[in-house]
Predict the structure.
Amino acid sequence: MRVGRRFTTTGIRTDHVVCDICETRIKPCGGWDSSTVNVGARLGEVFPEGDFRTVYEVDICPKCFTDKVIPAVESLGCKFRQRDAEDSTDEYYQRIVEAES
């Protein structure tokens, strides 16, 4: 959940973000702890005239993602893939293909 503060007569600036599950304040990235969680989807169509997708997103802290979201999604039969952040996606999938050969 985005918690905002009015900063002009025309808009609201996000002051901080709260986890939608446990309602604790999510620390901004910085220093050595750079954990981020991005859960969402953009569903619909994109044309030259514009982007007609609907955006679905939630704010989840790293602890709730690890302790609650991963087990819930895996209970549906999905398996999360893990890779080092420095691995490019192409290199990661190439290693999987080679391991399966």
